[in-house]
Amino acid sequence: WSSWDFPWTKKLEANNKKVFGNHSFRPNQREIINATMSGHDVFVLMPTGGGKSLTYQLPALICPGITLANIPATFLSGNMEWTEQQEILRELNSDYCKYKLLYVTPEKVAKSDVLLRQLESLNARELLARIVIDEAHCVSQWGHDFRPDYQGLGILKQKFPNTPVLALTATATASVKEDVVQALGLVNCIIFRQSFNRPNLWFSVIPKTKKCLDDIDKFIKENHFDECGIIYCLSRMDCEKVAERLQECGHKAAFYHGSIDPAQRAFVQKQWSKDEINIICATVAFGMGINKPDVRFVIHHSLPKSIEGYHQECGRAGRDGQRSSCVLYYSYSDFIRVKHMISQGVAEQSPFTPGHNRFNVANSGRVLETNTENLLRMVSYCENDVDCRRLLQLVHFGEKFDSAHCKKTCDNCSKIKSFIEKDVTDTAKKLVELVKLTGQQFSSSHILEVFRGKHLAKSEASRILRHLVIEDFLMEEVKKSDVYGSVSSVLKVNQSKAHNLIIGRQNVVLRFPSAINSTKLSKSDVTPAKGSLMSG
Ligand code: ADP
Ligand code: ZN
After folding, report:
1. ipTM attached to this prediction
2. Residue 104 Cα to ligand 1 middle (Å)
3. Which atom of ligand 1 lies at the shortest distance from residue 170's CA?
């Protein structure tokens, strides 16, 4: 796909320079454009800031016909009046259509018969060039940001089987990808993915104490004085409290969350883009579509709800490639808080169609299970004070990573640590055997729950289990569920590797910080009460 010999290559080069002002293409951009322009369904996994927009805007510009792009409501500039919409739909139907790219929200596709009829008519005249689904991970219930409206998008492929679909996301695990491909009905789709590693981001996790706000103030003054940053908070009230406190400390801070009115929201965004405010204390409602290249730090004042969410929020730092900090304040009590919010369905989501509110519906079934599993993984990320943070994140996205490449840019790699090496072969064997005995059909958190029930609370079991996956003794496999028609991941035994372990030919050794240096996580702060982490 990297060939320069496609019929459109010259036009591509010229327009990339002339219209978009780019000197060259970024990694995968040319390949993606060639694949979609060849008529294939394409799935793109590209980190935030990688340049996804160009991969559909440029084809839209140089192909005949119209490109339909589904994007979250907040990307649309303001709320269009009905008459204006009518005007556009009429224009679409005229033979001299001036539009190349039609942005709609998923909700619109599901609900507007007028739109569907217009698309059918365009399609009949071979003028529906391409269908683009941005933020495609929102389709999947297995993902961290499921949006019901996205599920209806499958109808597009059914109605227009010959129109190529381009699905784009900056965050998807293997199971989310499977789910999206299935839900959208993509056929023989070509997948582009690139490393999720962001070398210019520095990661650390810090125990959260009562002095957390003092710590944040000090951290910013010492490392990022007068620079731009985002502080993600759990609740709307937290946002306001943190912002107020930082203002008192002399920072130009403001808060942003789902319940401030649109005028104030716009005002804050404007001040932020003009650098009149440089710190935004926000819920996850702030972020999608925010395109500031020089965000120097992203601080999580509370535990994020999933590793995908965390990775995406951190991804808003350092888009310009300059060194930036990602600091997470973790306490076990926040875990309990988030868990409660998830089960009550009151956790704030990223921006959503105004008026369409799913905050006050208690989560149940599949969605609750997924959210809880995601949260537990986030907790085990925080409680791990040994392994490279990059490795831990990237493994989650199914990527291999050699932690030597971290070059001490995460807290765990940069600590001067003394370790004790501990042979955990016994526990490792038991875990592998448990996966086998239970028929290789359960998720890792379920296996841990069973294991802890049998062998009492062992805080290291979860690390050992993760290690077994990283080292390929166990594999996380995507499983389609008949009941929900969606996918989940279950643990399988990798026979050849596990065999050596079981017959005692191979040992599993893990490094644990020795007692003298393990000051980072104070026990009372983060250690769960016996068994509580996995129960309930
Ligand atoms: P994403 O949607 O993947 O987060 P964007 O499409 O918003 O990323 O692009 C991020 C930034 O990179 C934008 O400012 C965009 O103009 C710039 N960009 C994209 N492609 C190129 C390119 N080939 N050369 C230079 N800059 C680019
Ligand atoms: Zn590291």
Report:
1. 0.98
2. 21
3. 3
